[in-house]
Write a structure and sequence with these properties.
The structure holds three protein chains of three kinds. Chain A is mainly alpha-helical. Chain A has helices spanning 5-34, 42-80, 89-93, 99-124, 132-159, 191-214, 217-247, 266-286, 297-332. In chain B, a hairpin with a 7-residue loop joins strand 1 (3-12) and strand 2. Classes of the chains: A mainly alpha, B alpha/beta, C alpha+beta.
Chain lengths: 336, 227, 393
Amino acid sequence: MLVNPWSLALCLLAGLSLFLLGMASKTALRVMRSWQPASDSARQIGLEAEIWLSSTLVQYGLAFQVISLFLFVLAADHFSGMLAGAMCATGSLLANDYGLPLLAVKGTGIFLYGGWIVFHQLDISSETYPLVRFKYILLLCLLPFVVADAVLLILYLTALQPDIITSCCAIIFDAAPSGTVQNLVGGRHGQGLLLLHYGWAALLFAAGLVAWRRRQAFFYLLYGVGMLLFFGLALTTLVAEISSYIYAMPFHNCPFCMLKKEYGYFGFLLYIPLFFSVFCGVMAMVVELVKSRPGLGRRVAELQRVMVAVSLGALLLYSTLSAWHYLLYLVAGGEG
Amino acid sequence: MLIELENIVKIYNQGRVNEVTALDKVEMAVEAGAMVCLKGPSGSGKSTLLAIIGCIYPPTSGRAVIAGRQLARLPDRFLTMHRRRTIGFIFQRFNILPRISVFENVVLPLLPLGMSPKERRALAEPLLERYGIAHRRNFPAGEISGGELQRVAIARALINDPPIILADEPTAHLDSRLSRDFLADMLALKEEGRTIIMASHDPLVTEAAGVDRVYGVHDGRVTKDAC
Amino acid sequence: MKKYFEKQRNLLDYALASLWRRKGKNISVFLVFSLVIFLLASFLFLSRSLQVAAQTTLRQTPEITVQRMVAGRQESMPLTYAERIRGIFGVRRVSPRVWGYHYNEVTGANITVMALAGDPELGREPLAEGAFWQQGEQGRAVIGQGVVKDLDLGGRRTFSFFRDDLTLKSFAVAGIFAPETNILTYDLVLLDIADGRDLFGLADDLATDLLVEVVNPLEIATVARKISERLPDTRVVTRPQIQGTYQAVFSWRSGVAAICLLSALSAFIILAWDKASGMSPEERREISILKILGWQTPDVLQVRFWEGFALSLLAFAAGAILAYVHVGYFQAALFRPVMMGWSVLRPGFDLVPIVQGGDLLLIFCLSVLPYLAATVVPAWRCAAVATDAAMGG
């Protein structure tokens, strides 16, 4: 289903991202080949100017990635109207094998772009640009991701076939035999999962507070790894449990419908804090890698503290907001 | 010493066929509060020297310390950050943007600093008053007289309250009356304790009252003139 | 944080002023960009309106329609089939329907004649005058605005149709549908099922097709499968299928249109690239002055970004508003022949432009983002002007 404005827009965005990152990679290759900080040659001066080009390109890339993730979810919702058996975006994503991997790549892309920008900011905060090579190697690692994104998108869209009634054959029946809404994570898990989710969040919060006070690598590591695990857990819980409290329907478990107007765009209030919390928590751990580079020790330490603080705030926000409908349900009963 | 240059070499387009050595083993030292002239024909390396003192680019080699900061091979970003705290520029022809107002020209250096309009006004108004151009503040800079333009340039150079003022051929396009006015303004700034460096081959400048020292610049080499 | 926003505001102010100073250079980019966005938005708005109009029609479509197929052609349906469908669990109601076309030889128009049993579904649509017939009343019809015109009724409230054997059957006009429902009722004559059978010469135990209502909408597919298993000589069409087909057809059409317009867009992008690359000596001098005065390369880039963003946002707004007017007031005069020519909808209804957030985002992604991407590199070339370019010899 490539001939469709939504598909075209997604493909266009993928193409633009490739273009942006391709241009940035040219700089990356040149920097790796001939970066000589001590030289006053025309080439070195040119390279120093190119740093700004590449960082701008990656910032655009990040913005495009965020927009394209959002557009993808909207498009999936739009496609669901044309696919037999797809009630909402979840159905479209499950319509073939490429939907979910594509979503995962798009989501991860945001973290990678964001991470690169953090390293870039650290790099230009020191007079010796200590991370130049590191960050351009990282940039080249981003490239396969953007290519994968484009390839998966094309595969997904070409494999997606709308069900059109033709005059020759009689009936096309819905793919979903029971007619109920599909679920991304299989059956329901019950209260146990909710308990695990909030228990984990509470432990993480405690670990984060310790990391914030003690400022030791070990605690950042603990918090970062805990955050990564929490991300998976939170997404599962969102789909399996929290969503049905938001929709007030026991079998409606779509993680995307809550982004729509019908549910007051409530999903954004969950996903944005969750993403921020995980991103900052993980980055606090990851920047430890470059703490020993010349001129970065203090900057990294400051950054880690800010990151953990933002992450904790976002975690608190996410936990409160995600529990909101559940608590409402407990207080007001089923009709809440 | 506020400005110390030791063994400064600047080579343009290094590694290309049009490689040019603009400065060759320059030694120079200027103490705070001095008024110094760089004298020499155009193409002698005067402007390059001014650009290195003004933190526009670093020297190819040698030791340059400007207001306590060693500049060797500092990336552009940090040179700029140092420049905006320490240097005020007055250009040949003043380089005022003709299509924006006098006020906006004066506050141009403040825009990337994240100052609110109120803060900008608080810094700019006293300078506009001091140089008698407050009544012109909303005029496009292209429509005011040469004398006023020159004072706009001085006000803009002072907006960051820099310790060092650099002037590149400031009197090249002024008549003698305006030139004298300009030198009087510079003298006043010297008396405030600022360091003034002027590049010029105009005798009116090199022989002006208050000039402590004159350096001759010839073919990329600097000599101390006895005036 | 406050400093950051203050700085962005200052740079934005500077960018807007600079955009205004270079009116001459920017106006051509603005005009062409607005035109491209206008075309794109018109097409998307138009196809969205048609889609929504189609969905309005489909609201009246029964959940399941059962037709009898003989030798691959549709045949009349014996009412005994209705009994067999009623036996399926989950079916709420089965009602027979008789419908067909009446060809008006005078005007050459085809009138849709639909005859329903009992309380007609369409009875919920508002009428401009009159009322629906009571159950069991014969010889009374409710007709659409187009039929009034086509039959040239004027003030008369009776009309006649020929039966197949060329005898006349006359009807009294019980009511006329309100113009708002034109999309559904424009050329419709609604009758009681007994009148329909009489007109088309159908036996009392036959109908054209059967309409099936289901208790739980989620079970449409299941019920449909059971019907086709029980009555293998029928074609079963469900509402979701029809909706899906409509949507796919409209999407495909606007996709084709979008491809055409993307070539216009790429031409524009080349223009934009070209315009952004050219830099006058005055601009070079300005950027160099800014840099000597303490602006960083990223600050200049930021100004360029704001310029491009403001320009494209303005063009976006202008193009989208013009497109709205084009579709709403001028009834998409430019594209109507293309879209409607192969449209499944009948003409004679007013287009209501429908603007959805998603469509706006789509237009944004198809126009503003490519523009921004195309101008990064030229913008950087401007911003990378050597700092000392404005210094004298």
